[in-house]
Amino acid sequence: MSIIVRREEEIVIYCKGADSEIMSVLSRSFMDSALGSSVVRNSRAHLEKFSTQGLRTLCLAKRTLSLVEYDDWLTRHMEIENDISSPDREAELTRSMCDIEREFSLLGVTAIEDRLQEGVEETIDALREAGIQVWLLTGDKMETAINVARSCGLFPSTSSIYVIETENDVEKAYVQTHQAPLNDIYCVVLSSTSLHLLEQSHDLLITVLQSCLSVLCYRMTPSNKAEIVKMVKKTLKGKVLAIGDGANDVSMIQCADVGIGISGQEGMQAVMAADFAIARFRYLRKLLLVHGHWCYDRLARGFLYFLYKNAVHLFCGLIHIRSSHLIFSISMTNPRQRLERFLIQTFFRGN
């Protein structure tokens, strides 16, 4: 995400984002300078340190624009934005943003602690005991994501972890999991670059995913999250429940069979797009395993009730098919007459 600030005659664009994205748009002159190489080296060291501690990291960068360069870019960008009839408008807007978001100088990194809510680990254990496979989709880097997965109980301390990015990783994971003891548990880590394997319905990958305890997907964009939900429904042939608390989870929630939004500090976008809303993640346990079971039981009983009711009604008609006698009194079947009789009886009883 970027913002352009103008102070007197100086125009500066500030950008924040994941380290992989920011590092790829740094200017070569900055990277080659003594100051720039030192900043990049120290920033990478801090990123690794923060990630191993489970902190969520971001990189900050800036670039000074000349007045002519900014005016030229703004003119082109507004022309594209106002041309609503163009079929390639979104792609052209993306290219226009990429033209200005380049040649940055790295300012540094930030790290914040995103504390887990109370009862997260117990809720995941309860879902797992109910036979539900839990996937974690996050935009964090791999080290941070794995640390969070361990802290919330998604990855038990005794489990093996297989990171899958290429077809060779899939084959290695398949061989190792089938040679391991039956009581051995393992978890799978997928990156955004390995989604094409799931999209191609890779047989070995599907076998590995169906047999693993949990799955972690890192460096996921909102569109990546929605794609995973669609591919899981298609390849694994299962019902998907998606739960999230931010705007980045809206597309994922809308693509799932059941969407649940958590209200909180991230805003209300996820709640507005969801089928159900809860205030804490731990409430999912009761919502799904208690009220969900009751709802299923009520639907099953209601279905049987309507089935037998209609069968009995039809059976009476079949028995008296050759008779001209009314099976039921008209006053019993006419709602208007039943209402009038009820009102008359109530009126005379009151008097």
TrEMBL record:
One of its GO terms (biological process) is phospholipid translocation. Its EC number is 7.6.2.1. It is a multi-pass membrane protein. GO terms for molecular function: ATP binding; ATP hydrolysis activity; ATPase-coupled intramembrane lipid transporter activity; metal ion binding. InterPro entries: ATPase_P-typ_cyto_dom_N, HAD-like_sf, HAD_sf, P_typ_ATPase, P_typ_ATPase_c. Its main location: membrane. Belongs to the cation transport ATPase (P-type) (TC 3.A.3) family. Type IV subfamily. This is P-type phospholipid transporter. The lineage of its organism: Eukaryota, Metazoa, Ecdysozoa, Nematoda, Chromadorea.
